[in-house]
Write a structure and sequence with these properties.
Its EC number is 3.4.11.2. There is one protein chain. This protein is of the alpha+beta class. It has an eight-stranded mixed β-sheet with strand order 6-5-9-3-2-12-15-14, with no helix packed on it. Strands 17-18-19-21-20 form a five-stranded mixed β-sheet, with helices on one face. Strand 29 (513-515) and strand 30 (518-521) form a beta hairpin. Helix 2 (292-307) crosses helix 3 (323-341), helix 5 packs across helix 6 (404-418) and helix 24 (814-826) runs parallel beside helix 26 (849-863). Bound molecules: arginine (ARG) and zinc ion (ZN). Zinc ion binds next to helix 3. Arginine is lined by residues 128-129, 266-267, 269-271, 304-305, 327, 380, 383, 832.
């Protein structure tokens, strides 16, 4: 039973609009309950289009109070208003004409946070992907580019600040308690990049001089009193602007660049032209309230949205199937930026951890889809880790395949050729083909075939011939709607390490194209022979994670330890230790499930502790080594019939074994990795904190008493250390007096900071074990919880479902039933948020039977509910099919 199932949209149905939009003139008379929007749109009929063809505009939940054609009322016989369209007939055959639409909106009751809404008394918009149609009737699609003028009228007292895209034209007092401001954006843009913000906000100002000497005013708007917490974001912005000039040759193109932080926002941030709107979580930071991870996220997201100015805004998408054109590319750009700002190897490890824990499960489950999909029901459900993160990996592979210089040449050609256009992935790839003379036809399958390729490898050494033979087979698993797959072009970086840790330099290689250490796999099965290899080598596959694949290879712990000690590629060192840990953790889960004793491999302990104590390695890297694969990682490794409780107890046993063996090293690190002087958020300081906290964590898990965690909690002088200590207390000693005290102290101290209270919710939502569900339910009645704020809902309900395997996947199915009820409650208010949180169940089929049955029932309960949004029904239907 549903009312809003959504039509399926197909890429093959794309065709340009019948009418060309020339310009847009918008006037907003802002009012919380009744905002009046007058849109004046100048169109002309596209050449060759039938003279009788009507103009069809998109709309969503609009009240129209006026419709004029060239300033004359349109007779009712000449237009139709349906649920989501406005159709106008009898329009001029060739001459341009002006349509004036007047609509009334209620920003205050707009709980979907799409279109124009209110957040903390601020008017704010979110138009990507299809929010502009909630403001006025409009050709709301990314291939309709126009120049906008925006006039904003509002009460002066409550909205002294009136902002929109582009450059400020002027404004004045209107004498009746209201004032107005006018903005003009000279760059043609699609409607999804429109933004308006009005309210009373504080500002942090700075300026940036571009490479060609133009001065740009920089402004970050935040709630009054929070200005000091925007300093890091401003610094990150200036570094982003400079980096984009230096690395991609891209200069900013308006007189002003603005960022507004709001506390009610569905996603991370939005790249509206000249006026980015951010979830305040990704702007506000100071040492007392933000962790090192928060700082790193702010830097990355500020950069991401800024980089969109060229990859997304100046060159945009022809249609929403091309979303990865801007998102995959822009994520790649922000990854490279962070790698340059921080440690490249550590950044890469973090990226791969994220990719494997979020994108790999998506690609292996019912929601799998290609990076460039060919159909969708609800576009908001395609802002996925596949489009973003796998899309970034595919861009990175283009750079690997072509090499740095040709990649740069291709990017330059792209900017040159397509500036001002709305284009496709095919256009993007053609730039690299034209710049390099290479054929990227087979490579393009990365955009079209879903599923994570699996490479199965085995090697044999022939001492007599001094040759090493690698047999490689690639398979791409079946995914929804794609059963048979073609072999892909996989650029696999491989090193051959000799016994002494040095790298073999083969005389010749046959069986595959090899450039430097990149082996180009293009066939289902390939045998690659390296000659002139003096002794049996240990292969180190997928250096730098050159391809987003799963690798199956039998490799001994000793061989992995050799890689971990000697690889020149630091990422590969981490990868070897991680693979070793994962093997052991998967075995431990099986042992735990069948009640056998759990064995921790000495080679694993040795490898981890050797890296942890190796002073030649940077602390951040050592911390990454010590951070064991998560329970979700282990579940993915096992693949099917998963029992989260067994995974957890197996992991716990391994952790304790490492803690016991490493006690001395961890105690030493705790003392060595202290920092003196004022807090600094830079990567080196963050690395020392990370290593110290990793050591502390093992020490706390190796001890029955909470003292060490309590003292860390008491002595912490920054949020990284404080939240880590609180997490250790809560997760290791959930019911101890000391933990209750610490939770209360923390809450009291940060009661007026919602973003910190989110951490307080998340820490408690991730306490392992079945009883956390009751805790989560109780926390929902906490006065700080607010079911209509997305950050609160994500930190409590979302964190529980996504990040608490034993608590959420209770064997009795109560976790799933709880989530189902939450989804049905959130959905009518905010479908996007509901659909997003529901994806936490995407791997339900890999659970053991009892849990899988409960999960399926909960999903069916959702699917059977009345009045589901298109967002939720799309997700739930795909998960059940
Ligand atoms: N384009 C934004 C970004 O930087 C994401 C906006 C997504 N919003 C949405 N409602 N789907 O990645
Ligand atoms: Zn983006």
């Amino acid at each position: 039973m549903r009312t809003n199932t959504g039509q399926i949209i197909h890429l093959e149905d794309y065709r340009p609009t019948d009418f060309v939009l020339e310009r847009v003139d918008l006037t907003f008379e802002l009012d919380p309950k009744e905002t009046k929007v007058e849109a004046r749109l100048i169109f002309h009929r596209r050449e060759g289009v039938d003279a009788a063809a009507p103009l069809v505009l998109d709309g969503d939940e609009l009240t129209m109070t006026g419709l004029l054609l060239d300033q004359e009322e349109v007779p009712t016989a000449l237009y139709d208003v349906a649920d989501d369209t406005l159709t106008i007939r009898g329009l001029p055959e060739t001459a341009p004409f002006e349509i004036t639409v007047t609509t009334l909106l209620s920003p205050e009751t707009n709980t979907k946070l799409m279109g124009l809404y209110r957040t903390n008394n601020v008017y704010c918009t979110q138009c990507e992907a299809e929010g502009f149609r909630r403001i006025t009737y409009f050709p709301d699609r990314p291939d309709v580019l126009a120049v906008y003028t925006v006039n904003i009228i509002a009460e002066k007292a409550t909205a002294p600040l009136l902002l929109s895209n582009g450059n400020y034209l002027g404004g004045a007092d209107m004498g009746d308690g209201r004032h107005f401001a006018a903005w003009f954006d000279p760059h043609p843009k699609p409607s999804y990049l429109f933004a308006l913000v009005a309210g009373d906000l504080g500002v942090v100002e700075d300026k940036f001089t571009t490479a060609s000497g133009r001065e740009v005013a920089l402004k970050i708007y935040v709630e009054h009193g929070k200005e000091p917490r925007a300093a890091y974001a401003m610094d990150a912005l200036k570094r982003s602007m400079k980096w984009d000039e230096e690395v991609f040759g891209r200069e900013y193109d308006l007189d002003i660049f603005m960022i507004v932080a709001v506390s009610d926002f569905n996603m991370g941030a939005m790249e509206n032209k000249g006026l980015n709107v951010f979830n305040d979580k990704y702007v506000l930071a100071d040492p007392e309230t933000a962790t090192d991870t928060d700082y790193a996220n702010i830097e990355a997201i500020i950069a991401h949205e800024y980089f969109h100015n060229w990859t997304g805004n100046r060159i945009t998408c022809r249609d929403w199937f091309q979303l990865c054109l801007k998102e995959g590319l822009t994520v790649y750009r922000d990854h490279e930026f962070s790698a340059d700002m921080r440690s490249r190897a550590v950044k890469r490890i973090a990226e791969v951890r994220h990719l494997k824990s979020e994108q790999f499960p998506e690609d292996a489950g019912p929601l799998a889809h290609p990076v460039r999909p060919t159909k969708y029901r609800e576009i908001n459900n395609f802002y996925t880790t596949t489009v973003y993160e796998k899309g970034s990996e595919v861009t990175r592979m283009i750079a690997t395949v072509l090499g740095r210089d040709l990649f740069k040449k291709g990017m330059d050609l792209y900017f040159d050729r397509h500036d001002g256009q709305a284009v496709t992935i095919e256009d993007f790839i053609a730039c690299f083909e034209d710049a390099s003379g290479r054929d990227l036809g087979q490579f393009s399958l990365w955009y079209h075939q879903a599923g994570t390729p699996l490479i199965t490898a085995s090697g044999s050494y022939d001492a007599a011939k001094q040759s090493y033979t690698l047999s490689l087979e690639q398979t791409v698993p079946a995914t929804p709607g794609q059963s048979a797959k073609k072999p892909m072009h996989i650029p696999l970086r491989v090193g051959l390490l000799l016994e002494d840790g040095s790298e073999a330099k083969p005389a010749t290689v046959s069986g595959a194209d090899v450039m430097a250490d990149v082996v180009h796999l293009t066939e289902r099965r390939q045998t690659v022979v390296f000659s002139g290899v003096p002794s049996r080598p240990v292969p180190s596959f997928n250096r730098g994670f050159s391809a987003p694949i799963n690798l199956h290879i039998e490799q001994s712990a000793e061989d992995r330890a050799l890689i971990a000690r000697h690889e020149i590629d630091l990422f590969a060192r981490w990868q070897a230790l991680n693979a070793m840990a994962l093997d052991n953790l998967a075995k431990a889960a099986v042992q735990a499930r069948s009640g056998q004793p759990i064995a921790c491999d000495e080679a694993l302990i040795g490898g981890l502790l050797a890296a942890a104590g190796d002073e030649r390695l940077e602390p951040a890297f050592r911390a990454q080594v010590l951070s064991l694969p998560s329970e979700a990682d282990i579940a993915r490794e096992i693949g099917r019939d998963n029992d989260p409780d067994a995974i957890q107890s197996g992991r716990q046993a391994i952790l304790s074994a490492i803690a016991a063996s490493g006690k001395d090293i961890f105690t030493r690190l705790l003392g060595e990795m202290t920092l003196s002087g004022p807090f600094r958020p830079d990567a080196a300081s963050a690395g020392r904190r990370a290593l110290r906290n990793a050591a502390l964590s093992y020490l706390v898990y190796g001890d029955d008493r909470p003292e060490k965690a309590v003292s860390a909690f008491r002595s912490a002088n920054n949020m990284t250390d404080l939240s880590q200590a609180l997490t250790l207390l809560a997760h290791r000693f959930p019911d101890a007096e000391e933990t209750l005290d610490a939770l209360a102290t923390f809450k009291k101290r940060f009661a007026d900071n919602a973003l910190v209270i989110d951490k307080w919710f998340a820490i408690q939502a991730t306490i392992p074990g079945a009883s956390t569900l009751e805790r989560v339910k109780a926390l929902m009645s906490d006065p700080h919880f607010n079911p209509s704020n997305p950050n609160r809902v994500r930190s409590l309900v979302g964190t529980f479902a996504f990040s608490n395997p034993t608590g959420f996947n209770r064997a009795d199915g109560e976790g799933y039933r709880f989530l189902a009820r939450q989804i049905l409650e959130i959905d009518p208010r905010n479908p996007q948020l509901a659909a997003r949180i529901l994806t936490s169940m995407r791997s339900w089929r890999s659970l053991e039977q009892v849990r899988a049955n409960h999960a399926q029932e909960a999903l069916k309960e959702i699917a059977g509910a009345a009045n589901l949004s298109a967002d939720v029904s799309d997700i739930v239907d795909r998960m059940l099919s």
